[in-house]
Amino acid sequence: MSMHPVAVVTGGAGFIGSHMVDLLVARGYAVRVVDNLVGGREANLAHHAHNPDVIFENIDIRALLPGSPLFADARYVFHFAGIGDIVPSMENPMEYMSANVQGTVHVLECARAVGAKVIYAASSSCYGLADTPTREDHPIRPQYPYALSKYQGEQACFHWHGCYKLPVNSVRIFNAYGTRSRTSGAYGAVFGVFLRQMLANKPLTVVGDGTQTRDFLYVTDVARGFLAAAETDRVGQVWNLGAGRPQSVNRLVELLGGNKIHIPKRPGEPDCTFADITKLTTELGWRPEVSFEEGVALIVENIDYWRDAPLWDPASIAKATETWFKYLGN
């Protein structure tokens, strides 16, 4: 029986979740990982394979029930499990609502059974095409089912807080990037697309003119933000989590050093994402530590991780985003 404080990480074999596991282990926690390995990879946790304080369970969050031994004695539950991406959510909205809303309810009930504090991984996509810099009190305008499902998951957390007095906090992630980001599945995050193209010596597919900016935050800084949201005495709070320093796609291409080719701009995509992180830095004393240049260099050092990722080109991207233009176009 471990004497360490216990934390549960749902989606803990995934991109951000696995870095959360690393940080918790480094801070002396015993960690229980829940992941169905649809988006996550056991390889992301391989370095913890012989650590008795890291337990992994291959299970869908919708199969979790109150009384699950995975949650016994848990102090914190970091809830990252769910499904992402814009286009697949438009094509299969029922699955998104089921995994991201109903799945969250299962996690909340398991946490409620043991009185654990829940830290919910929310999405800045809830703001839609937002005014920038974007504060937490910005109007909510989800534009596609993924955004809606993540926001309704957040609402469920606060309902459980109000109704059952369950301690919860929500962290709205802007643009997380870093090692172990997803390599498979739908056309999506720019880093995975670009890195695979670099490995194949293909031009990088830049959407529009590349001047659009994203509030990229390196994944270890994301994990630190979540730990701060857990260890604070504050509950019932929402915090934006970004670097507060948007970077252009053209700057990313410059750092990666590849050739580029332009593909059509997409409707419903913001020109800028920019987190106002005043609330987080003021209330929790958190600051980003990894610069964009340092973060990109760390990814390039580990570029072989993306060797088996799908290789996208303008034609396959156009086909994969047909639904996007259909539903979000004018």
UniProtKB/TrEMBL annotation:
Pathway: Bacterial outer membrane biogenesis; LPS O-antigen biosynthesis. It holds the Pfam family Epimerase. Residues 8-242 form the NAD-dependent epimerase/dehydratase domain. InterPro entries: Epimerase_deHydtase (IPR001509), NAD(P)-bd_dom_sf (IPR036291). PANTHER family: DTDP-D-GLUCOSE 4,6-DEHYDRATASE-RELATED. Belongs to the NAD(P)-dependent epimerase/dehydratase family. This is NAD-dependent dehydratase. It comes from Paramagnetospirillum marisnigri.
